[in-house]
Structure formats: C-alpha cells, structure tokens
Design brief:
Two copies of one chain form a homodimer. The first copy, chain A, is α/β, with parallel strands linked by helices. Chain A has ten helices and ten strands. In chain A, the strands form two sheets. In chain A, strands 1-4-3-2-6-7 form a six-stranded parallel sheet, with helices on both faces. In chain A, strands 8-9-10 form a three-stranded antiparallel sheet. At the A-B interface, strand 5, helix 6 and helix 7 of A face strand 5, helix 6 and helix 7 of B.
Amino acid sequence: MGQLHLSNTMQIASSIAEMRELRRQLPEPVGFVPTMGFLHEGHLSLVRRARAENKSVVASIFVNPTQFGPNDDFEAYPRDEERDLAQLEAENTDVILMPQPSEMYPVDASSWVVVEGLTDGLEGAARPGHFRGVTTIVAKLFNIVEPTRSYFGQKDAQQALVIQKMAKDLNMNLEVIVCPTVREPDGLAMSSRNVYLNPDERRSALVLNESLKLAQQLFDDGERDAGLIKRKMREMIEREPKSEIDYISIADTSTLAELDRIEDGALVSLVVKIGKPRLLDNVILGGPA
Amino acid sequence: MGQLHLSNTMQIASSIAEMRELRRQLPEPVGFVPTMGFLHEGHLSLVRRARAENKSVVASIFVNPTQFGPNDDFEAYPRDEERDLAQLEAENTDVILMPQPSEMYPVDASSWVVVEGLTDGLEGAARPGHFRGVTTIVAKLFNIVEPTRSYFGQKDAQQALVIQKMAKDLNMNLEVIVCPTVREPDGLAMSSRNVYLNPDERRSALVLNESLKLAQQLFDDGERDAGLIKRKMREMIEREPKSEIDYISIADTSTLAELDRIEDGALVSLVVKIGKPRLLDNVILGGPA
C-alpha cells in the first residue's frame, strides 16, 4: 500500500470489524457508494455527489460473486485496485471498504434478501438469481456501513429501482439516491465492461445511445405507441452488424410493467450484446430528466 | 389511553416515524423485545433481561400477518393490549412500538428476508412460509428500532436459531440473545396459545414437558439412540387421549439436521396438538442448559 501515496485521511477497511470501528469515528451524515471497482467517471460522479451532500464518504470495492450467474463474467470481471484507490483518494473519500469474499460469504451463509415483482423482467429474466445477489450484498453492506445516504447510477435503472424498493419495504434507515448516467463524449454510457470492447465494437456500441435518442425524438414528436418506438429502435440497431439485441423494453417507471402505450412517462431500456459484453443503457421519457 | 395510568416515562410509538424520533433520544445501549402481544411471564422474562443489560428498553407488539398461513390462527390470535401495556409499564419499558399493519405492509410490499436450510424442517415444514414472515418482520423491526441487543425465547427454538443466523449472515449490527423457556409451576411451557386450552386439555398438555423430561432422563442414563428416545416419547404422548403428535425431532443444535445418534448434544423438540392449538416445547440435551 506504501506506493499508493494515500493521504492520511483516507482509510482502508479490509474487514467488517475495521469498518465498524472506523464508522464510529466518522462525522454524520455518512454518504456511501458501493462499487465492484474498476472505477470510471460514473462511479466518481456518485462519490462527488456523496462528498457534496455528507460530512463523511465511504466507498466499497467488492466484486460480488452472488450476483454473477454460472455463465457470467465473474472471473473475468476487470479489476484495478491501485487505480481505484488513487481515484477515490483524489475525490477525498474517507473510508474504503474492501472486504474479503470469505468474510462476506462464509461457507454456511444461507440468508438472502429478495425483492419480488420488480425483479421478474429485464435483467431479472435475463440473469436468473442476479438481483437476489445484488439485494443481499447491498443489504449486507448497508448493515456494515450504516450510511445516511447511498448512491447508485441510473445506468443500471432496474437495479436502482430494486434497491429503492428493498430499502423502503424493509424500513432501512437510509436514503437511496439515484444519479444520472455519465457518458463518454460520443454518448456511450460509461461501464466497467466497456473495457471488453475492441475498437470496432466500441464504435458499434454507440448504437445503444443512438437508439435511445431516436426513442426520445419520437416521443418528443408525439409518438405514444410503445410497440412502434421499439420497432424503430430495433431496426436501427439491427443495421449495426456486430449487434445482438437481448431486449428492448418500454416500461412503467415505477413498476417496470411493460407498456403498450406511453401515458405519463416510461423507462426505455435495452441490452445489446456487442462482441463479448452485454451493454445496458436507458432513458426516461416524459419524467424528470 | 388515559385509563392505562401510564407513567411519564413509558412512551408509545404507533408509527415508524414516532419510533425513529423516540429512538434518537434513548440512551445507549438499547435492548429490544419484539412480541405479538398477549404477554406472559416468558415475554416479561425477556423484558427483564433487556432491562438488566441495557440503558433503554424497547418492546414491540405486532401480530404479524405474514407469518401466519391460510389455515393458521391469525384472526383468532389472542389480543389484550391494555393488559400488555400495563405489564410492560410495570417492567419499566421505555418505548412500546405498536405499528399499524398498513404501515408495516403497504399493499405493494414485495421484499422478503429468507433463511434457507435451517427453515426446511420442523416448523418450516409444518408451516410453509412461516419463517419467511418471521425473518422479514424481525428484519423490519430491527431496521426501525436499531437495537443494540434483541431478546428471544428458547421456547421457539428454531425461530431463535433462524433469527441468529439471519443477523449473522446479513451482518446486522446487533446481538441476538436467546433466553430460557419460562414454565408454569406444573411444567407447561408458557405460550400465548395456552389460552385456547380447556381445563381437560390444559392437564393433557403437561405431556409435552413430561416427554422431554423422559428424553432428558434417558440421555442422562447414557442412551444415545435418537430413534429409541423418540419412540419412548411417542409412546408416552400417545397414552394421552387428547394428544395428536405433529412431530418429535432430535436434531443437531446448530444445523437442525435430524440425528440418528446423539454425540455431543441435541435439540429435542416436539409439537403436539392438544384440542385446537399446536403446542411447542423443547429441551437441549448435553449442551449448556
């Protein structure tokens, strides 16, 4: 750790006991940004927001095995601890929690937090068990860090809704704040998985954001037929030879029920496989930006 | 409430917001006793233990609908709020949480806490969904009350183990303490459901404790064959005409795996229907009393 030139103020907790001890000393309120590391501007925007709204900021880095399925990229998930720590230090993070997998999941662990309904479709349908892993690890991290506020990105729109629902249903004593998606200058939503893209795929990946802009344009021009908007998005994406559509969804912004017709607003979300990675993106139509 | 002659110090929170507000003012540490009301000496022993070990004591009274099955006695579950409050006041309880069912379970609530494995057998097998209701309400109450320690009775042995497992697996920042079963002078384990027993049934109900004493006697005499001990218990109970055995179990004290042979220790638990109610009782052989 000596080579990282950490400031005196940033502390690293590598066990739950260390985190609890540091937590007792942190001035309230405490903002918390849970991550799986390999940080990009999207994560850092959450840390900055936490920094602006709280006296103390905690971030966690933990690649959570229980949210990856057997065919997912758990082993290959990109990691760069040194760079992550330097970036978090630059944002004046107070404490980084980097727990050991064996402490987070002892061999006999058998308790889960589940959110029903909201997790049935979209990523929940595409990745069985994924959200059970997400809600369980986030509940555990909330219990360890005991934050006043916690910050998540709109890029993972369903995840953000699911975590808000979990916190509300289970009366967790904290606020779950969802922050706007951060994009590359050319519009690609930032994601740790973008590192998997070769230059050709990187260019093709722009079609996700382009198709969402098309949906926004059609909506702004008065189109309310969700089927028609999805069809036009699909046509645009299929023109991109390296793309493989997983799903395109236009759904109610709070229940995620698929819509035939857009009334007040809608969450337009899609997953497209470009080369190896499944890329996610979304836009909210007719709601607060 | 004016007729209850509550002291100035005991406060009643009938909403989550009121509880959180009162919680902020309570001196630490805070002991918590969650109950479904209709209190007896068993509950009060938990309150006394909480009183002895903490600066502040919170109790809750909430008949939790999600832990009752469609054929269970939710509607008929005995209630006596006035008596409960007077008893809790006499034990110097600081705050009573009596939340509204509609606030605890809004119509769209869809999040659950589940403990797998430990909940498969015994009461989990007899009452499908029961433990999911228990762990969910207890997690919610823990999040609302944020206690330092929480107290449960050994009479519901599986429930106590399941809640300890939940708290450990999900890193809840509190201690779950299990207290000895309190019995009537003639040995019947105290239970709110004992009120269902008519005088004949009340006499028959003694057979639960008698059969556990038989198991203890056999064990003390060197018997280690779990099947034989269960058979002798069964013979004794079947001699009682009003009894209907639901199950007799001799299981590992931490995993609840059924044992053929007792090595270090065992949880002997049984459920017998006497008239209307299912009565539970248990004893730990070879372990700490």
